[in-house]
Design goal:
Elements: H1 10-19, E1 24-25, H2 37-44, E2 47-50, H3 53-61, E3 68-71, E4 75-77, E5 83-85, H4 90-111
Parallel strand pairs: 2-3
Antiparallel strand pairs: 1-2, 3-4, 4-5
Protein name: SMC hinge domain-containing protein
GO molecular function: ATP binding
Domain SMC hinge: 16-60
Length: 112
């Protein structure tokens, strides 16, 4: 077995829960077969799931926690300083629908 599992330490997890009681360790939220435990620990063992952007940012950069965090919307904060992912806003969805509608209208006009 070549996978070196990495799980967030108890002190860091407790500090995270003091700052944000709703935070969960990603590993606690995933079901898997026992033989997959090293891979799951490697993948999810040091990632925290946060209810919102502010909590995720706070935990990722707090000196007592400093862990990768992911919001329920998919925003990812890394203590190295990167922010990735996230969901589109409703206005972006509306804009995309408007563009789709315009494109469909042009296609109908060309087909006629």
């Amino acid at each position: 077995n070549r996978i070196q599992a990495s799980v967030l330490g108890k002190a860091r997890l407790e500090a995270a829960r003091q700052l944000c009681p709703d935070v969960r360790l990603a590993l606690e939220l995933v079901r898997f077969a026992p033989e997959l435990e090293p891979a799951m620990q490697y993948t999810f063992g040091s990632t925290l799931i946060c209810p919102d952007l502010e909590s995720a940012k706070r935990l990722a950069f707090d000196d007592r926690v400093r862990a990768r965090t992911v919001t329920l919307d998919g925003d990812i904060f890394d203590p190295a300083g990167t922010l990735t992912g996230g969901s589109s806003t409703k206005s972006n969805h509306a804009t995309a629908r408007g563009e789709q509608s315009t494109s469909l209208g042009i296609i109908r006009d060309l087909a006629a």
